[in-house]
Amino acid sequence: MEKIPEFLKNNDHYLKSCILYEVALKKPIFDSYRNFCDTVGHNAMEYPDFEFWYCRFCQGEMDFDYDRSRGPVSKTLMDMPIKLMQKITEDMTPFEKRYLRSINHSIKDFTDSLPTVFEKIEISAYENKLEWKVNGNEYECKKEENGCTFSRPKCLNAEKCEKGCYRCKDENKITETFEESYIKKSLEYLTPLFKIPNLQINDFRFCVTDQTPELDDLLPVAFYAKSACIQMTNFDKMVQHLSNLKAGFLEEFTICFHSSIGKEHLTRIYETEQFKQAQGVKIYHFAELNVEDLTNFNHLKHFTLHLNPIEGEEILRIRDTISTFKNFEECSIMYQRNGRRIRSLAEVLEEYLEGPVEEFTHRYKNPAFNKTLDFKIKEWGHYFFIDVLKV
Hints:
Blueprint: H1 12-24, H2 29-40, H3 47-58, H4 82-89, H5 94-100, H6 105-113, E1 116-125, E2 129-134, E3 137-144, E4 147-153, E5 158-160, E6 166-168, E7 173-178, H7 182-194, E8 199-208, E9 224-232, H8 235-243, E10 252-257, H9 263-270, H10 273-277, E11 280-284, E12 302-306, H11 314-322, E13 330-336, H12 342-348, E14 359-366, E15 371-380, E16 383-390
Parallel strand pairs: 1-8, 8-9, 9-10, 10-11, 11-12, 12-13
Antiparallel strand pairs: 1-2, 2-3, 3-4, 4-7, 5-6, 13-16, 14-15, 15-16
Helix pairs in contact: 1-2, 1-3
């Protein structure tokens, strides 16, 4: 087909005549469309329109003035049922979804509407390096004299072994050297990770032993995590990062602070929606908690905490308080024994022990709340450990 005059390119009937000519040559449709574009111009007609008229002419339908609005609407990729689209994407890795998003705007919007789920992400920031694990794949950015070194796995194909840990099929790593600081280089990889739309992490762990201003942007946006552990040297940053976890979706969290936590610190934790809507909370390291503070945990299913030293008789208040908690299932409490021995607690609970013992179990039933609890009390070092379990 020779080049056609410019004024004919806007002539609808003439363009259809060109398509009919391609049909008459009995060429494959894609070859025909390529030849059509080379002849009349690449902007003359979109492929779906070319395909429509090509198929009609192949079927002997020669009406150039056919009203397409009377016929069935052409199906596109986005016309697939939602369940089928979800089935296609559910087994994709987050990295495969990244390429899927690049197809077109509709696919991007659909992909972004689905959660991108990571099983486990761990981040540890130290004075001279930053380490992170994503579904078992290990990365490390380490400070060097003139920049940093960055180590990453050669492959991202991690498999779950029988014991529940992740093992990379190729244990060799790629190590590269860069002139940037180790934190800046780390953020190039981590910041986009936490900006993934609808990000969900089943188990998230974040430990910072050296807080620097460069780390302030490490977790830039709020995201979904079912379980979280946050360990920091800066309490304000700890609360900020805890608040970045979507309340309600967060089922349990652990906070570890490097120095003693006062009443004013704990009050800020209690006031967060994350604490109010959680099912389980663990507070490690020393916190200024007294027996009366236990009531703040009455909505939880399970909790772990450290109490200030208490008198022997106060074990009864602990028992009577916890037995009133509506959702309670289990907890662990520890406090300094200050020279007292476990037999003194047994006497208060009217448990009579024979011989030297380091632990005993006390069963208590609260008829008012129809609840029976087992208190396993153990003397270990300078502490009493109390593990309470709903029977």
